[in-house]
Each structure stands twice: as C-alpha cells, then as structure tokens.
C-alpha cells in the first residue's frame, strides 16, 4: 500500500462552546476540511451541521449508504490550527469514528478537564458534553 490511509486528519473536530445556560449551548466548530469554523446556535443545529460535514467528506461513511472507495475530500491549502481554538465555556476534541444505527460513535475529549470518554450515540455525546459544561457552570456560580 502506498502512503498512509487517508482520513485520519479529518476525524478530529474541535468544538468550542461559547455560551451555556441551563442546558442550552452555542458556539463554533473547526475541522481540517473546513477553511473556517462553523457557528451553531443550539445543540440540534450543531448535530445537523456536523452531519452535513460528514456527508460532504464521506468520512466516516454512513452505515446506511452503499460503501465505495470514492474520492477523498479535497485538501484545504493550509489546515487551520486546531490547537489554538478555545471556547469561552468549554472546549472539546470530537473524533467521530463510525456512523452506525443512525447515530455517531467515537470519542470526545474535554480539553479543560483533561478527560476523554467514548460515546456510542449522539445522545451519549450530548450528555457527556453537558456534564462537563454543567460542572463548570456550577463552579462559576459557587
């Protein structure tokens, strides 16, 4: 096999949460496939935009779509510096490895807390992110 397997650099997405109040969040996310970050105003909008991004990249391929080798996503001239991105309320490194059973599976790292957890669905992902943000919100209030 020549070279390395394509796709690994696209699996990491930095999620910056700028506002969080009583379970409602908003912010932006960055992926090497995108020349700029994308903003979102709610958790549902975040899920929709990331799903659209995954469909555009065709990585990881959806479980319900017929598999093909296809073309790799076009490379961005100079990928954004993902490490330099930070949310005002919290920052997460999201790695979506699979899209099975109409959901996502992968791992999420809470950068401020220095903890990584695997998730088996978007519900589990949202609960993990919520627990980290809620902890920080309680620390700020207390």
Describe the structure using short key phrases:
single chain, 142 residues, alpha+beta, six-stranded antiparallel beta sheet, 2 helices, 6 strands, globular, disordered N terminus
Q: Tell me the structural class.
A: alpha+beta
Roughly how many Å apart are the termini? 56 Å
Q: What's the overall average pLDDT, rounded? A: 83
Number of helical stretches of at least 4 residues: 2
Shape: globular
Contiguous low-pLDDT stretches (5 residues minimum) are 1-7
**Strand order within the widest beta sheet:** 3-2-1-4-5-6
Radius of gyration (CA) equals: 15 Å
Please indicate the count of domains.
Answer: 1
Question: Sheet bearing the most strands, described?
Answer: 6 strands, antiparallel
Brief digest:
With 142 residues, this protein is of the alpha+beta class. It has two helices and six strands.
Structure, explained:
With 142 residues, this protein is of the alpha+beta class. 25% of the residues lie in helices and 28% in strands. The protein has 2 helices and 6 strands. Strand 1 and strand 2 form a beta hairpin. The longest helix is centred in the C-terminal third of the chain and has 20 residues. It is globular. It starts with 11 loop residues before the first strand and ends with a helix. The N terminus is likely disordered.
